[in-house]
Amino acid sequence: MSTNDNDKSPKKQREPKPKGAGALMAVGMAFLAIVAFGLYSGRLNINQFQGTRADTLKQIAPRLQFVLRNLTPGLLFLLFSIIYVGIQRGAKGAENPAAGRDHLIQLPKNILQNTIEQLLLSVFAQLILVTYLNPGQVLNVIPVMNGLFFVGRVLFFIGYPNYRGLGFQLSAFPSMAAIGYVGYRYVLNLV
Question: Which residues, at least 6 apart from 17, have a Cβ–Cβ distance to it below 8 Å?
Answer without folding.
Answer: none
